[in-house]
Specification:
The chain is of the alpha+beta class. It has one helix and nine strands; from the N terminus they run H-E-E-E-E-E-E-E-E-E. The strands form two sheets. Strands 2-9-8-5-6 form a five-stranded antiparallel sheet, with no helix packed on it. A four-stranded antiparallel sheet has the order 1-3-4-7, with no helix packed on it. Keywords: Signal.
C-alpha cells in the first residue's frame, strides 16, 4: 500500500512539473538564399520552465554559440557548447522576466523569446 501511494505521489509531482515546461518557438535568422543539397540547417530545440532552459539538437552540433538576454537586453548567459540529443541545461535567474535567446553555429542562426 505504501508503494502504491508513493507511486501515485511521484506521478502527480512529475505530471505537474512536465506541464510547466514550454517550448521556445525559434525563428531562423539565416540569410542563405541558396543552400546546396548537401547542406542543411538543423534547428536546435529549446524548452524552459521558471528555473532552467534546456537546449538540444537531434544531430550533433559541435560548437553552438548561445546568448540569453533579459528584457533590459542585459546578457545573462553567453557561452559556446556542443549540442546533442541529450539536453544541455542553463539555469535562469529567479526574477522570472522575459528573455531572448540567440543560437548560432556556422552560417546558421536562430532566435526566440520566452518568459
Amino acid at each position: 500500500m505504501r508503494r502504491l501511494m508513493f507511486l501515485l505521489f511521484a506521478i502527480s509531482i512529475s505530471a505537474r512539473s512536465l506541464a510547466d515546461i514550454k517550448e521556445v518557438e525559434l525563428s531562423s535568422d539565416n540569410d542563405n538564399h541558396y543552400e546546396s543539397p548537401n547542406h542543411r540547417s538543423v534547428a536546435p530545440t529549446v524548452n524552459y520552465d521558471e528555473n532552467n532552459v534546456w537546449i538540444k539538437s537531434k544531430d550533433l552540433l559541435p560548437n553552438v554559440d548561445i546568448v540569453i538576454k533579459d528584457s533590459a537586453n542585459k546578457v545573462i548567459y553567453h557561452g559556446a557548447m556542443p549540442l546533442s540529443p541529450s539536453a544541455s541545461v542553463i539555469p535562469l535567474p529567479d526574477d522570472n522576466e522575459k528573455y531572448s535567446i540567440e543560437l548560432s553555429y556556422g552560417k546558421n542562426s536562430f532566435s526566440g523569446f520566452f518568459e
